[in-house]
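=== RUN LOG ===
request id: a7f3
mode: sequence -> structure
chains: 1
length: 207
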Amino acid sequence: MNVYEAIAARRDVRNEFTGNVLSEDQLHRVLSAAHAAPSVGNTQPWDFVVVQDRDILRRFAAHVAERREAFARSLPSDRADTFRPIVVEGIESSGTGVVVTYDPARGGRHILGRHTIDETGRLSVGLAIQNLWLAATAEGLGVGWVSFYTESFLHELIGIPDGIEVVAWLCLGPVTELQAVPDLERFGWRDRRSFDDVVHRESFGAS
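=== RESULT ===
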């Protein structure tokens, strides 16, 4: 699979995890790809916490279910009906969680590239996540990004030190398939914008 094929095939996986745990070799390759990402000032501000303990996965899944329900209650009725069939996590069925964190202090006070745009540090972590996702896709694995949680709960659950930010909990594991159409499009939550709508020439809004 070349990089363009991996980009096209990549999906945010929820229902398709097989329940098997990926091999240590696969895990090493995928995390190595993530760690090879570019970063502002070469700070490499990420860390990856691999979680495979079934009790921790169960406790996190229960917390996410509570937060998902709170979000569902906040929606107007029409959006709630659209949201209801959308599965938002595969925490236990994936068998592996990868918690991706950001250390804003890594690299010291004077970081090349962050002097005027501090957000480039977090964006660097996003690049590592994208690398992980594409490598997983090439390996025939699925990734699901879980965002229904409170950061304080996750800090306590896996012992994240003060000053370290959580960017993502990623479910990672073998899948039966990758959907041809992303879930949020299939279930009618939101369609993808067209290519022509997002490309501008010389000034914003120009086509």
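=== NOTES ===
The beta strands are 46-51, 97-102, 141-146, 165-174.
The first strand starts at residue 46 and ends at 51.
=== END ===
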